[in-house]
Amino acid sequence: MVDEYRHKGLRKKLVAQLRRKGISDERILTAIGKIPRHYFLDRAFADWAYKDQAFPIGSDQTISQPFTVAYQTHLLGISPKDRVLEIGTGSGYQAAVLSELGAKVYSIERQAKLFEKTTSLLKSMGYGTIRTYLRDGMKGLPKFAPFDKILVTAAAREVPPALLEQLQIGGCLVIPVGNDEVQIMVRITRLDEENYHTEKFDHFKFVPLLSGINEAKN
Fold it and tell me: Contact 158/149 with Cβ under 8 angstroms?
């Protein structure tokens, strides 16, 4: 796939739209303006890649709309060299944004077919430093904990305890929490070994966070 002049022009329009919607972090806007989102979509959707909406990517998953990506990234407050755990690699687009901000990204995907496809894509695009794992996201990645930031890109009915335990003191977890119809974006900051501070933000709609691993590759 080629990143043509028209794609770059469409990205500029998308960035302007996100700015109008209230995204003010120029580092995030710069990352979104740089990354060719159409690479992360099937060719059938390529012409609509720079619309601010979600699209299916197979395995009953979606690529989040750019506003949602920017919103969650803003809540994380990424600093260069932050160790970030992402639950739900999906297309890899969110991981690429985090990487562009200087984060060291560890990303978990439970769908084997999507995991293989996205891992290959990220490497081909030059994001070889993003470490991807076929795992159960509910359990996190204890081997590499603690993390400065944890981002969940699927809706949980309740916050997985394992993710809270894998947060660095002073670090934060951003996760949509709620039922199948609507979820509220939550940011949880770890204050010390036992205490956490919870903040609630806007409502969103995500695919559900599921446990286990789907090994199917067809």
Answer: no
Q: Which CATH class is domain 53-204?
A: alpha beta
Task: Tell me how far the alpha carbon of residue 4 is from its chain's centroid.
Answer: 25
Domain ranges of the chain: 53-204
64 is catalytic: yes
Model pLDDT, residue 81 = 96
CB burial class (10 A; 0-12, 13-18, 19+) of residue 191?
exposed
196 close to 177: Cβ distance less than 8 angstroms: no
Q: What is the pTM of this model?
A: 0.95
Q: Which of 59, 64, 91, 107 is catalytic?
A: 64
Yes or no: say if 163 and 157 are a contact pair by the CB < 8 Å rule.
Answer: no
